[in-house]
């Protein structure tokens, strides 16, 4: 299976994206499809490259346009926005002229002008509606355009039949038909303008120039290369006015760096030796020599770009539900409009029946329903990125608001990744060998012991997650791990236990070291809490959320941290499968972890969080990635989740209540209130605008 991305033009509403999605899912060999109106993009999971051509042909057949890249998409959006504005202005002028003839001139010439001008205005200014409605009908897809076209054509054809004396009701609705087009175009123009504004953050990211990098070679020469080829360990030079192309650490120099793309702050940040920097920052003054800590394509900037792209394409439970409703909504409204027409035809007259049915068609557009969830999630994802939180799965943002239990890994999650060595009873060669073997593991304890050691061991290693390391070299076999690990391998640890008991108040993390089934001694380490850990636990308690520690470390170490954080429930000396079982048996639980042995738990939890510095598998598995180590950002995730869900529910409530209240009014079933077709069209358009405006409240929370 492979992923295929494409940028799509000419989508006028959420129902367009749903139509493409449904059509492409029917193609054999397409496992999954997700198309976003908000992002003008689609993501498809396909079996082979041949399916790409079929998908592109299907999209074109539906009447949409394939765009080559982000630049062409941007140019296309600007072009369509200008075209929409021109059509809107022309249709307004024509509507005013037609209305003038209808109100102040009843002559034969006036009727001719009304028919001619409205014909031009409807079929020229509103041509996109007819084009998409025709293709949708041809491909058995009914959407917003279907309702608009049926309503507009009903008004125009009815007026033409009156003009040619087929009917003798005495009413012409050429101005009404023309005003329907004008009001719909007005709504689409305002909605489009607001949507473009909401996409400003993504545009800002795409405009950051990180295409070229200057690499400092070993011989002192400077070479310019594509940033795509920058790898971890490379030394890059960044001068005044240039963008940093990769995440790294400042080796020398100092400069003010504009990080507004990431933190939204107007004031620049002073970066100096040993400070971390992120790709996308712009050096305002000075020169920095930076050592890359990862590939340019793995930088924070690229992760944000990628996740902002995905944000609008992932379907949440609420979005999936509304898509299913929208699928059958249009057909139901057409049947309802027919019923309303027949009802009023027999109860009143043809004129009343026509007006009521036309109003029902025009007021019932499902766009507001379709926009309710995706645009809110897209804005929330951009907001999270500004606050150093990468939202990989927007559906998790919806679920997080329901979480009442949080499981924390301890080492590297609640405590700092680097531990301090307090005491050890190994001789010089023994301690050196222990540290060398620990370079083979990515566990936080191993990293603390093996820092600043660059050595490639040639022996055979077996890392047992959550327990320890077995290393074989020549005829020797080494064991590193907990007392339980050494005991399970038949190694006596009593002598080492006596050493640890002398200093039990100084440190809580014990590492035992054995060679050829004989314990050589051990190392005592201690950890300190990460920034924001205490504030996080207090904040969760205030929200009625319970915190539990799940750790493979010894009882003393876990209990010490639990007391510092005032956490009553904790588990120690857990094997990975035991940790996994606890998470698996818990419904609606959040798991926060960072290690390789946490990856399975992160994938099984209802919601999961990891860190940008975490193990690669943990990063790929987590729903949320915290760029900064400050744990208080988890509280912001909860706040954003609840705020987003509240706004989505308000959007959905408005979309549903709007139709519940307005359809009976449009149908004429509410006494003393009538609604003409063109006012129904105006009300329909502003329902979508209301949803977009409400979602924009998430932008600056």
TrEMBL record:
The keyword Transmembrane applies. Residues 2-67 form the HMA domain. CDD domains: HMA. GO terms for molecular function: ATP binding; ATP hydrolysis activity; copper ion binding; P-type divalent copper transporter activity. It is a multi-pass membrane protein. Keywords: ATP-binding, Cell membrane, Membrane, Metal-binding, Nucleotide-binding, Phosphoprotein, Translocase, Transmembrane, Transmembrane helix. One of its GO terms (cellular component) is endomembrane system. Gene3D superfamilies: 3.30.70.100, Calcium-transporting ATPase, cytoplasmic domain N (3.40.1110.10), Calcium-transporting ATPase, cytoplasmic transduction domain A (2.70.150.10), HAD superfamily/HAD-like (3.40.50.1000). It is found in: Cell membrane; Endomembrane system. InterPro entries: ATPase_P-typ_cyto_dom_N, ATPase_P-typ_P_site, ATPase_P-typ_TM_dom_sf, ATPase_P-typ_transduc_dom_A_sf, ATPase_P-type_domA, HAD-like_sf, HAD_sf, HMA_dom. It catalyses: Cu(2+)(in) + ATP + H2O = Cu(2+)(out) + ADP + phosphate + H(+). PANTHER family: ATP7, ISOFORM B, P-TYPE CU(+) TRANSPORTER. Probably involved in copper export. Belongs to the cation transport ATPase (P-type) (TC 3.A.3) family. Type IB subfamily. This is Copper-transporting ATPase. It comes from Campylobacter aviculae.
């Amino acid at each position: 299976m492979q992923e295929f991305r494409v940028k799509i033009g000419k989508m006028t509403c959420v129902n367009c994206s749903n139509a493409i999605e449904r059509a492409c899912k029917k193609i054999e060999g397409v496992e999954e499809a997700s198309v976003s109106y908000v992002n003008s993009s689609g993501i498809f999971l396909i079996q082979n490259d041949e399916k790409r051509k079929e998908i592109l042909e299907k999209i074109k057949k539906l009447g949409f346009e394939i765009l080559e890249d982000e630049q062409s998409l941007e140019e296309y959006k600007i072009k369509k926005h200008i075209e929409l504005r021109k059509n809107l202005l022309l249709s307004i002028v024509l509507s005013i002229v037609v209305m003038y003839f209808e109100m102040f001139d009843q002559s034969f010439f006036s009727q001719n002008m009304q028919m001619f001008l409205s014909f031009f205005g409807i079929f020229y200014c509103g041509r996109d509606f007819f084009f998409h409605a025709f293709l949708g009908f041809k491909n058995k897809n009914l959407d917003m355009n279907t309702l608009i076209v049926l309503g507009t054509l009903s008004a125009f054809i009815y007026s033409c039949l009156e003009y040619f004396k087929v009917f003798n009701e005495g009413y012409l609705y050429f101005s009404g038909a023309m005003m329907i087009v004008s009001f719909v175009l007005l709504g689409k123009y305002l909605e489009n303008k607001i949507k473009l504004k909401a996409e400003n953050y993504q545009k800002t990211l795409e405009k950051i120039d990180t295409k070229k990098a200057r690499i400092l070679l070993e011989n002192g020469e400077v070479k310019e290369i594509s940033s795509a080829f920058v790898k971890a360990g490379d030394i890059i030079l960044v001068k005044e006015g240039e963008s940093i192309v990769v995440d790294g650490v400042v080796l020398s120099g100092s400069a003010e760096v504009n990080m507004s793309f990431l933190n939204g702050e107007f004031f620049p940040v002073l970066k100096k030796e040993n400070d971390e920097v992120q790709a996308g920052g712009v050096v305002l003054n000075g020169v920095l020599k930076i050592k890359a800590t990862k590939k340019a394509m793995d930088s924070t900037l690229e992760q944000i770009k990628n996740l902002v792209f995905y944000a609008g394409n992932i379907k949440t439970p609420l979005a999936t539900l509304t898509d299913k409703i929208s699928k059958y909504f249009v057909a139901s409204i057409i049947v309802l409009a027919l019923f309303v027409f027949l009802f009023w035809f027999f109860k009143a007259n043809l004129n009343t029946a026509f007006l009521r049915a036309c109003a029902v068609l025009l007021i019932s557009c499902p766009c507001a329903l379709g926009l309710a969830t995706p645009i809110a999630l897209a804005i929330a994802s951009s907001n999270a990125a500004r606050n150093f939180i990468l939202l990989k799965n927007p559906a998790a943002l919806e679920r997080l608001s329901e979480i009442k239990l949080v499981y924390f890994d301890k080492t590297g999650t609640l405590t700092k990744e680097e531990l301090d060595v307090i005491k050890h009873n190994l001789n010089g060669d023994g301690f050196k060998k222990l540290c060398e073997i620990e370079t083979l593991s990515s566990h936080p304890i191993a990293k603390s012991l093996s820092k600043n050691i660059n050595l490639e061991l040639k022996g055979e290693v077996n890392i047992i997650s959550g327990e320890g390391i077995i290393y074989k070299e020549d005829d020797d076999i080494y064991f590193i791990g907990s007392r339980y690990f050494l005991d399970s391998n038949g190694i006596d640890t009593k002598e080492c236990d006596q050493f640890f008991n002398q200093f039990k108040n100084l440190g809580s993390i014990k590492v035992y070291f054995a060679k050829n089934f004989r314990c050589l001694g051990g190392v005592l380490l201690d950890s300190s809490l990460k920034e924001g850990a205490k504030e996080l636990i207090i904040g969760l308690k205030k929200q009625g959320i319970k915190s539990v520690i799940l750790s493979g470390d010894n009882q003393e170490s876990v209990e010490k941290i639990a007391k510092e954080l005032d956490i009553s429930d904790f588990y120690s000396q857990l094997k990975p499968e035991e940790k996994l079982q606890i998470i698996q048996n818990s419904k609606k639980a959040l798991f926060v972890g960072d290690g390789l042995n946490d990856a399975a738990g992160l994938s099984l939890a209802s919601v999961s969080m990891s860190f940008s510095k975490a193990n690669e598998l943990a990063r790929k598995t987590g729903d949320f990635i915290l760029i900064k180590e400050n744990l208080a950002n988890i509280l912001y995730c909860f706040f954003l989740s609840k705020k987003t869900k509240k706004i989505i529910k308000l959007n959905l409530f408005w979309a549903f209540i709007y139709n519940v209240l307005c359809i009976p009014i449009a149908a004429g079933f509410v006494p003393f209130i009538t609604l003409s077709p063109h006012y129904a069209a105006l009300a329909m358009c502003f329902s979508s605008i209301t949803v977009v405006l409400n979602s924009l409240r998430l932008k600056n929370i």
